[in-house]
Design brief:
Blueprint (H helix, E strand, L loop, with lengths): L5 E5 L4 H13 L1 E6 L11 E3 L5 H4 L8 E4 L16 H21 L4 E7 L12 H4 L25 H19 L3 E7 L13 H4 L3 H13 L6 E6 L11 H7 L9
Helix pairs in contact: 1-7, 3-5
Amino acid sequence: MGENLNVLVTGLNGVVGRALRGTLEKRYNLSALSRSGVSGLPIERNHRADIADFKKIKPAFDNVDVVLNLAADGGMSSANGMDASWDSMLRNNIVGTYNVLQAAKESGVSRVVLASSGATVNGYELEEPYKTLVSPESVDLPASWEMIDEFSEPKPITIYGVTKLFGEDLGRYFALTSEMSVINLRISSCTDEDKAAPGRAQANWSSYRDLQQLTVKCIEAPQRLKFDIFWATSDNKKLFRDNSHAKNVLGYAPQDGIR
């Protein structure tokens, strides 16, 4: 895989989509799928439909090589954050994710990159030493700590986190039962501003350019990478969401980090 790919992005208007758009537009033939449309894209690549409506979204997947699924409720772009309603998360994060994967499979898409979340493991932050690492106070850091990697026990403490774990396993199912590759990208702290706020973001931050680099590496990874999960984090001093797997498998080389 490489440049000149036809890449369809759902949720391009969201926080993560806006952080990635410039890089994706320069590198790929970019199209978008959203309810309200995306400014600045030609009409033939600006598909308008609700991802919960399979029949309406299906035409957007024609002649697409890779899908980047950012559409969801309960994340940074959501009005109620992780307290979004169950009905909305069911529609967007569960039914919508299934529809995206099924439409991609039926259309011969080679890879889907699913935006997962640090919410899959937020329960660790209720325990030491992680509670100290995310503290907004000036506290002494532990001498060392066990990293939380992609294979650590999930610990969601919100329904949003549960829906993201569902998406990861749904991706695993499609990767195992079709020719399609599915990669899950656990996006950590990424907000409207490309900087880390005090507190937990000091451990979990992902800079825009690090997220851009890793997303490109996921899109362009060899097709033999059928399924995987990667942490999207910069090299922060307090980091405990382990990005070494992305470094080892994809050659991810973070350029930023809170020291």
